[in-house]
Structures are given as C-alpha cells and as structure tokens.
Write a structure and sequence with these properties.
With 190 residues, the chain is an alpha+beta fold. It is built from 4 helices and 9 strands; from the N terminus they run βαββαββαβαβββ. It has a 5-stranded antiparallel β-sheet.
C-alpha cells in the first residue's frame, strides 16, 4: 500500500506577486500582532484541500485536474485588497483578496470540485472565496487596532498575473511551518 500524503490543488504565484505580499506582511508586522506568518515563498491560491491522499490515487486526482482544466484558457488575476476571517472583532486568518477574472476562477474551482467529488472527495459546502493567506492569528487583537492595520492596506494591489495551470501539491507539516512541494502540474486547455 502506498504511503498517504497531505495534498491540495492550488495556483502558484509569480515571484513578483510574492514579493508584494511579503511587503504587505512587513507593514502588518509593524503592529506587533501575535501572528504566525506564512513565508512569502509558500503563499499560494488553494482551490481544493484534499487531506491525506493515498499515493496510489495520485493519477486519479491528476486525471480529475486535467478534466477540470480542459475547458479553460489562461485567466488574469491580481492580489488585491485585504481582510480577515471570520471578522475584525475575532480575526483568525489575515488574507489578501483577488481581483481580475474572478467569475472564471470561481468556475474553475467549482469544475475541479465536481470532478474530485466524483472520486469521493467531499464537495465544498461554503462558497469559494479565493484568497491568499498571509498569516494565522495566535492571540487576541483589539478590533480597533486590527481595523487600523487593515485600513493601511485597503488599497493594496499587486501587478496582474496570468494563470494557465493548476498544481497538485504535497504538504509536509514541520515545526518551522509547512513545506510544499509540487507533485504534478496540469496546464489549461489540454
């Protein structure tokens, strides 16, 4: 039996966008919030978290990704705006939002979700909210201070970038943070 691994399907970001996200993190770090920051090189746009994937099923997942990607051409996105989940009064996740062809992105995610559901992966119950996680809050933050920090970056926008593939990633959890490695890339329109 093959060894399972933590897996997810995501869109990788260009280095220039990661650099912009790192600069946004530096602005937020100046507030001294207790946050576990995601390393800029690890920030990605998750389309579907799969959990523990039996390595023997990798080809089935890649086939589902290929079926999902087949109907799409490259789409244009940009990192844009900032927010927190669930809200500024009880922030748990600090994120940067997206701009650009969001309806196409949502359609891609829903198509991928449907093909993976055919393999037994539970469909998403919440509507897709594409975002780039900057950090996870580890302590209480006064709502006013959080809102002040968010206001500082409300007009944040990276340069635009083109998305033409989705990637199956392996995630290894370590004390220093998760390490992500690419398992397989699938290009659009194939």
């Amino acid at each position: 039996m093959s060894e399972p691994f933590r897996a997810f399907v995501a869109i990788d970001l260009p280095e220039s966008v990661r650099s912009s996200l790192g600069a946004a993190q530096e602005t937020l770090k100046s507030y001294g919030f207790r946050v576990k920051w995601v390393r800029p090189e690890s920030i990605h746009l998750t389309l579907k978290f799969l959990g523990n994937l039996d390595a023997a099923r990798t080809d089935l997942v890649v086939n589902a990704m290929t079926l999902a990607a087949r109907g799409f051409a490259a789409l244009s996105l940009a990192a844009s705006g900032i927010g927190v989940f669930p809200n500024a009064r009880r922030p748990r996740v600090i994120w940067i939002g997206l701009g650009g062809q969001l309806e196409l992105l949502k359609s891609l995610q829903q198509t991928l979700d449907a093909h993976l559901a055919d393999l037994g992966f539970p469909g998403e119950s919440r509507p897709f909210k594409g975002h780039l996680t900057l950090g996870r809050v580890k302590g209480k933050i006064a709502a006013g201070r959080m809102q002040t920090a968010l206001d500082k970056l409300e007009t944040f926008e990276s340069e635009g970038f083109e998305v033409s593939r989705i990637i199956l990633f392996k995630s290894e959890l370590r004390p220093s943070g998760a390490i992500y490695s690419q398992v397989k890339q699938v290009s659009f329109g194939l």
